[in-house]
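Protocol step 4 of 5: obtain the predicted structure for the target chain.
Materials: sequence only (see below). No template structures provided, no constraints applied. The aim of this step is simply to have a reference model before the mutagenesis design in step 5. Sequence pasted as it appears in the construct record:
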Amino acid sequence: MILHDVTRLPGAARRKGDRIGRLNMKSSLPHPNPAGEMFDALHAGLEVKLIATPRQELKTCRPDDLVSDAVRRNVEHYNYIPVVDESELIIGLFHAAKYRQDSSSEALVRNNFRFLSEDFIIGGDTSILEFVKDADTRPCRLVVSGSNIVGLVSLSDLQRFPVRAVLFALITGFEITMMEAVRRLYKDEAVWLAMLKPERRDKIEKEKADAQAMDSFVDTLLFAQFADKKTILEKHGLEGRSRSELKTTLGRIERLRNKIAHANEYATTPAQARQVCATVRDLLKLRPEISGL
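Step 4 output (structure tokens):
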């Protein structure tokens, strides 16, 4: 076997050798999984500490405070207020929202708060997505770093910008999963195009023609919007789900997607925030089902 020093070969031969080397290197790499990698990576670096209220900014109350006084001082209308002892150590959470309509209560906070437990704790380096997944059932969490409580995060924090970024990444990854499923199911683009309404099909065909005219065409499916992929998958169906169930679930995801994409409000009320949590769980459950098509 003769080995050549490609740096001493003529230009054309050297370029050919470089090209072969790149091809060999490419063939030795594992096959990519764009949707999975996008889905897992986009939100991984966004952590709960980015949306938490820092410890030094927390409003607190004491066990011997009257409930009425704690509620009256809560001018910011926080739903939960940390309870601290004489050493300023947090020992639990007082559900202030529960007593907002009972501001004359003479009861003491000590008889109306929940002591610190694992249910109220979350690591500052936990991904925001992990918090969102069950923020409707665990709406207030104390954020810990090392052995210290460094802040508090609650259901209302779903309105913060880093959460919007997480949700956008989540839905983007989901849409890529949908696109790859359509591509696997229908090798002939004419088949999935025929599933769309004429006006949607015409719009895609026009954008495809414009791209071809500019020599920038890559794939017809790239011109399909979320609603188009949703329509195709609804018509194909999923084993174990009724078509009406699939349509309802994809519809909720699409509505959240539109609010996120258009910078609209999506969690301004507790009810809306809880719906976001439920929709995220739906998405996470549905994604592997679509990936398996």
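Step 4 remarks: The first strand starts at residue 53 and ends at 54. The chain has a mean pLDDT of 87.
Proceed to step 5.
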